[in-house]
Design brief:
The chain is α+β, with helices and mostly antiparallel strands and 162 residues long. The protein contains four helices and eight strands; from the N terminus they run αβαββββαβαββ. It has helices at 2-23, 38-55, 99-112, 125-128; strands spanning 28-32, 60-64, 68-76, 80-88, 92-96, 116-120, 146-150, 156-160. The longest helix has 22 residues, at 2-23. The termini are far apart.
Length: 162
């Protein structure tokens, strides 16, 4: 029993490490304000998300997956074949019908606070290999040479390619 738990934990850790490594290959999409502090941006984002949730509460809607009738042919030696039908689908699912609207309200809030959504490309391997271990605390002005190095803990540092 203990061995199975250890194996499951190791597989989970390996999967998370793989996801973290994969994330390093993708651009960073974040709310950005040159000269702003990252900690303040994260706090403002939380405030805007809570405000949006208060303005646009969850609206949980239940739906059903589409129903399909699947023919199944049963043949018996000497008795012939019979076709029956099995129903597939019709399973209930739930979703929040206000998710998109709430996201737009939060985005308006961040825009009013002076942020813009930016997409920062990942740094090439040659720069990533030399990147300092720290993280960006104050958002620098972005240029065409700006790139990002993501760390395994979710933090990131913005550097210049040139």
């Amino acid at each position: 029993m203990k061995s199975a738990l250890v194996n499951r934990s190791l597989r989970l850790c390996a999967a998370m490490l793989g996801l973290a490594m994969l994330a390093a290959c993708f651009p960073l999409k974040t709310w950005y304000k040159p000269g702003g502090r990252v900690a303040r941006m994260q706090s403002d984002l939380t405030d805007c998300q809570v405000s949006a949730l208060n303005k646009v509460p969850r609206q949980i809607v239940t739906g059903l997956t589409p129903i399909q009738w699947i023919p199944v042919r049963h043949c018996h030696p000497g008795k012939g074949c019979v076709t029956t039908y099995e129903m597939e689908g019709g399973m209930p699912y739930q979703y929040d019908a206000n998710t998109d609207l709430r996201g737009r309200v939060a985005a308006q809030c961040m825009t009013r606070k002076g942020y813009a959504m930016e997409e920062i490309p990942p740094c090439p391997d040659s720069i990533r290999a030399k990147a300092p271990a720290g993280q960006t605390k104050v958002m620098p002005a972005l240029t065409g040479n700006s790139c990002v190095v993501r760390h395994s803990d979710g933090s990131w540092i913005i550097l210049n390619k040139g």
